[in-house]
Specification:
GO terms for molecular function: aldehyde dehydrogenase (NAD+) activity. This protein has 301 residues and is an alpha/beta fold. It has nine helices and 15 strands. It has a seven-stranded parallel sheet with strand order 3-2-1-4-5-7-12, with helices on both faces. It has a two-stranded parallel ribbon with strand order 6-15.
Length: 301
């Protein structure tokens, strides 16, 4: 499957900057390059970026970095790393990674007179404080977000106030090539699932996440906020049992009090939330992996 195309509602990507060009950003860059775009990848050490991405070295949060001219599209796809602030608290690390990076990027775009037509920020569904199993979408309140979630909301707000027509893509949990820790936990017998209450989980295959970013970059009327998740919020236990059956191993067991204490924060976990992908789908996007089954089946093949 691919995105449904509507030529009247799409725009080309000509010169794209991916700021924070890690795994997800690299996937976005390569997809844009396949469409004929000239793509620049900015990160601290760009030496490992594959062709045809043009490597740019720089620290978004603290600089310095130089931007190419005539950019029409930008993706901000940063992720927290302890190497960027080993002595910072988790909230401080988020502030440096997201908010400081967004501020310096916007300042650089303005200072160099860039006429950026579309900007996509890869945010997170952690902006929602819902943890009782309720449904959330783009209209849901972020008023009860955690401290790190509030940093993401502040970053979204900062970018929305720029002249660059920004969209914040709130991604749920990423999985796919190189992101197989859940599979390994099931394979080793270490996986457990929450009970009382059972927990609802949300995820999106990393390739679909990259495709969603490109979809929004090319969409002339993209919303300011979009939830990026697959089409099936699902119980944690359902995913684990399905994986165990496919792997031919013993099914996972419910977690105990000692399990919860051994995994930081698990003892405070509630029933989770059900994140809707209706707006993303309604904008013309089709998931290649609409549920966890298609995505994990390919990983296990």
């Amino acid at each position: 499957m691919s995105e449904r195309s509507d030529e009247s509602a799409s725009r080309p990507i000509e010169r794209l900057l991916v700021a924070g060009c890690g795994d997800l950003g690299t996937r976005v860059a390569l997809l844009a390059a396949e469409r004929g775009a000239t793509v620049f990848g900015l990160r601290r050490d760009p030496s490992g970026l594959p062709a045809p991405i043009v490597p740019l070295a720089g620290d978004l949060a603290s600089g310095p970095f130089e931007l190419p001219d005539r950019l029409d599209s930008v993706v901000l796809a940063v992720a927290p790393s302890r190497s960027g602030g080993p002595n910072l608290s988790r909230t401080e690390l988020y502030e440096r990674t997201y908010l400081a990076s967004a501020r310096s990027l916007v300042a650089a775009l303005v200072a160099t007179g860039q006429e950026v037509q579309r900007l996509v920020f890869t945010s997170s569904t952690s902006v929602y404080g819902e943890d009782e199993g309720g449904a959330v979408d783009e209209r849901s309140s972020t008023g009860h977000a955690s401290a790190t979630g509030r940093v993401l909301v502040a970053t979204e707000d900062l970018l929305a106030a720029t002249p660059f027509r920004a969209t914040s893509l709130r991604l749920s949990g990423l999985y796919g090539p190189g992101r197989t820790s859940l599979v390994e936990r099931v394979r080793s017998g270490a996986a457990t699932y929450s009970v009382d209450p059972e927990r609802i989980t949300n995820r999106i295959h990393v390739d679909d996440a990259a495709r969603a970013v490109v979809h929004l970059l090319t969409h002339t009327d993209a919303p300011t906020v979009v939830c990026g998740t697959d089409r099936e919020p699902v119980l944690e236990s359902t995913v684990l049992r399905w994986l165990a059956e496919r792997l031919g191993v013993e099914p996972p067991r419910p977690s105990t009090a000692s399990d919860a204490q051994s995994r930081r924060g698990e003892h405070t976990r509630g029933a989770g939330k059900r994140v809707s992908s209706a707006l993303l789908v309604g904008s013309g996007f089709e998931h290649r992996y609409p549920t966890f089954r298609e995505g994990y089946a390919e990983l296990l093949h």
